[in-house]
Design brief:
With about 280 residues, the protein is mostly helical. It contains 13 helices and no strands. α2 packs across α11 and α7 packs antiparallel against α10. It starts with a helix and ends with a helix.
């Protein structure tokens, strides 16, 4: 552990990954409950396209990708609210189109290079000092906004029509969650990869929902799972020279399986107790 922490790139990955994992877990609970969990996958493909263009043009990838993905999240919500498109159709349209554009631009310029592979599959070596500073600032902003508007986000998540009837601006808070998700996706993509980043949103929330039913408990448990899986995955990737993103996702899968087992056992015990009482 001490040897691992002696490397600056590991420390950078530790700081950024912990914050991104925490943000992903908090937002993931709301997205999963609203059946909109695949938004992360769609926005990650848009981020890949934006970073591909920035790489070709020698621009700063994060500075280009963040505004582009925020605009994409707005477009995605508008398409989903339109009666002609369902949520999954809008995500499929945006994600496949953006991915195709990014691959086409890169192939026309210089072919798929190491930087683009890092964006696709993630790499702790891809995080620079400037990336850390920007990631810390934006991650703390995401956490602050989530905590500040927690009650409103909770109301919109569970009963949007009732929230609107009580005067809550549901469209604004839906857009806020989408923008915060967009920022989180871009920040985490350099380390986890475009193909895996959506798992940080889905797995912790799904795991915690197997055991807990209270929204606050689900949020807390999801945050703990996400951070622990990232830290453990980082250590595993260092010890076995494995990709960080894949290690983190595999650990999330293991945790999800364990929570499903706990839920199954609890349900069986409850059914046996009820049958015994009857």
């Amino acid at each position: 552990m001490l040897e691992m922490l002696s490397y600056p790139f590991i420390l950078r990955a530790l700081v950024v990954g912990t914050l991104v994992s925490l943000c992903s877990a908090l937002l993931g609970v709301n997205l999963v409950l609203k059946r909109y969990s695949m938004i992360g996958d769609g926005l990650s493909h848009v981020a890949f396209s934006a970073m591909a263009v920035a790489t070709v043009m020698n621009w700063a990838p994060l500075w280009v990708a963040i505004p582009v993905v925020i605009v994409a999240s707005y477009v995605l919500l508008r398409l989903s609210s339109d009666g002609r498109f369902s949520g999954d159709s809008a995500i499929a349209l945006l994600s496949t189109g953006a991915l195709a554009v990014g691959i086409f631009i890169i192939s026309m310029k210089s072919g798929i290079n190491t930087d683009i592979n890092n964006y696709m599959f993630g790499s702790v070596l891809a995080i620079s000092k400037s990336d850390v500073s920007l990631s810390v600032i934006l991650s703390l902003a995401v956490l602050a906004l989530y905590v500040l508007f927690y009650n409103k986000i909770f109301a919109v998540t569970f009963d949007e029509p009732f929230a609107k009837a009580t005067g809550v601006r549901a469209d604004f808070y839906n857009m806020l969650v989408a923008v915060l998700t967009a920022v989180t996706i871009v920040l985490g993509m350099r380390m986890i990869g475009a193909l895996l980043i959506s798992s940080l949103i889905i797995f912790p929330a799904m795991s915690s929902m197997r055991v807990f039913k209270c929204f606050r408990n689900v949020v807390i448990c999801s945050a703990v799972i996400s951070v622990v899986c990232f830290l453990t995955g980082l250590m595993v990737s260092y010890a076995y020279s494995a990709p960080t993103g894949a290690s983190v996702v595999i650990l999330n899968i293991v945790v999800f399986a364990a929570f499903c087992a706990v839920s199954f056992v609890r349900g069986r015990i409850r059914r046996q107790r009820i049958s015994a009482e009857n």
